[in-house]
Amino acid sequence: MFELKAREGLARLGKFTHNNHTIITPNIAVVVNPNKQIIPPKELENEFGVDLIITNAYIIKNSKKPIKNLHEFYKFSGLIYTDSGTYQMYSKGEVGITNEETLRIQKELGSDIITPLDVFTLPSDSKLDALRKLIETNKRIKNSLTQNMVAPIQGGIHLDLRKKACKELSKINPLIYAIGGIVPLMNAYDFKRLTEIVLACKQNLPSNVPVHAFGAGHPIIFSLLALLGIDLFDSASYALFAREGRYLTEYGTKKINEMQFLPCNCKICASHTIKELQNDFSLLARHNLYVIMREIKLIREAIHEHKLFDLVSSRIRAHPSLYYAYKWLLEQAPFMDSDPVTKHSAFFWTGPLSDLRPELLRAKARLKELGFKKVPRPLKLMYPFGQSEGIKFNYSKKKYNDLETLRLLADYQLGKGAGKTLFPERTRIVYTRNRRINKAFLDNELLCVLRASDGHIILHKAGAMRIKKFLKKVEVNKEVAQFPKSGKSVFAKHVVKASPGIIPCMEVLVTCNNMPIAVGESLLNSKEMKEFKSGVAVQVREGL
Length: 544
What we know:
The protein has 22 helices and 24 strands.
């Protein structure tokens, strides 16, 4: 079960529950080699907060250690994910294991999440070879699908093949979708092509299943991939880099033998000298893992605070390839249906790329729709105009009285013409102590509250009924209609249909048999409301 709790861009702060374990996404599956446990899984769990590990069925098959049950062997209480051996096929050139054999081994080991033996596609593969590998991979997935299986997506660098794979696999119901064949691109710092592939996959996959980027394990790329909607990462980079004497940071990798200072305050760096890290790769591995886990947690909090765009803007300065990948991504404007219409935090303008963020694109489009060349002054109350730093808007000089202000805000937020319908001449306005517009009444009935934090009109029963034709609709089945009517939230599994164009944090009308029964705020977009089977779709404010 997967449900969304917060979001920004295409990123999802979510809860993924499987086999009685719940983890928060974005998350990383820390790679554990049964033969070389540099950091024991128990320590991963207790000291680093790891609740998801990934191990390899091919390595276990050839291990001299007898392993009957993964949870018992690793003494790990979180989720255990097993890889099939595909990466060994790529890195070593051959694998002595079949798809049937690897699946049998994973099941016998009691793996929580199992992976079929997909056919790794190289960036250098021709389109014909990539297609052949895609067909074989999809055949293996379909022939062996179980409730806890991952569906790897191949197709190489050919975006039409990636889309083809996604559309075919969208017809099944795997536990997780995993984008494969991308490690060589990350190793080559080809982040633009990586971004193109991930976006092509995300746009052609169902929204209600977590998406894993196979082999993505360097913190330099986490925030950008999270913004693209990647929910799960994995890598052995913490150990592999340590063996090579490489010190991980969020902005790149350093050679420990060339460093004079430790620019980190993790437990390892705070209690050991640089010489000790140079002489003990297990200490270096622990530092590397602290950095990885810290970045994952930072990304989660950034999504919660609606600050992930700001985090990405700072991280892309680490490498030109990251910068140009992010620039290309913004130019595609893929966030318009998923990025919330309003946010908890102010909009920070940090340079020309900020002009391509969905908040400003949406604002410009709405102003054009309303016929304004300059920004009307009342919009200083509303996000992003009044809740921004570093950007100057071109405001008009026209003055508005308070009723005109409310009407303009309604037209901007709810659609052209909504203002006069919602606020007739006899509207009574209530103010705060510092004379800010607070509430609007009609015939002693509360129409709406003007939220101080972002200037958004928060509709109540009387207001929603006046402008119901302007509001997007979320239809629920009659068996549950009593719950929204009494002010309880609408769950995604009860949504029968949703109007096109619903965006998170939008005012919506809940209906049953086309009759209004509640008003509230959307937490999912239209596509997600149709696809998700868990979590809240609409936070109901008031039954009608």
